[in-house]
Amino acid sequence: xxxxxxxxxxxxxxxxxxxxxxxxxxxxxxxxxxxxxxxxxxxxxxxxxxxxxxxxxxxxxxxxxxxxxxxxxxxxxxxxxxxxxxxxxxxxxxxxxxxxxxxxxxxxxxxxxxxxxxxxxxxxxxxxxxxxxxxxxxxxxxxxxxxxxxxxxxxxxxxxxxxxxxxxxxxxxxxxxxxxxxxxxxxxxxxxxxxxxxxxxxxxxxxxxxxxxxxxxxxxxxxxxxxxxxxxxxxxxxxxxxxxxxxxxxxxxxxxxxxxxx
Length: 262
Fold this sequence. Notes:
Elements: H1 2-36, H2 43-67, E1 71-75, H3 78-81, E2 87-90, H4 97-102, E3 108-110, H5 123-129, H6 137-149, E4 153-156, H7 174-182, E5 186-194, E6 212-218, H8 230-254
Helix pairs in contact: 6-7, 7-8
């Protein structure tokens, strides 16, 4: 009986959390933020303060979900995550991964789909945070380099979508191409979710039988040698991408983060 009641409570709390994410987001970015914006300074200072606000909101949201018993989370070496001018590359096991990462990084930037800037609910936070979008790949590389050289921490999920449990890691070359173009260090971050939940194949109400735990394990920096010429850079991007795939496959196995739903 106790287990059943706990399950029903977590199901209710999960639905409440999703509702609050949407409702508070609309209220904050549509109502409160436009009033606060003139007090946040201008240009880069304003962007950094907006990102700090986002970090605190997401930290509060993660702590709310932990308090009501939906999840627990663990973070190793959070200060390394906040070193400026680096690219955080992470696997993507759960819908909450971007919220979890931003809640730990004070000056986080990320790449968003250009179509989102036309969404009236997304336009304000995307512009306030200075998130990166561009249709042209070369323009996108330049904008990423500008962000990194300005001190931002750029978050990239090289898989391009959430990880499918049980399948091999398969990365796209974007993170490596950005690192080579900007000459920025890559910081691998292993994300775990046990038991698995909120994967791309699962609805929000398909919760696990027990509270799940998110883990964030910071790896070692990967620094790249300068590359000249677009052909060489393309080959180097392939090599670095394969290197990252091997790194994540081995480290996820070392930490027992590749098991299927329990």
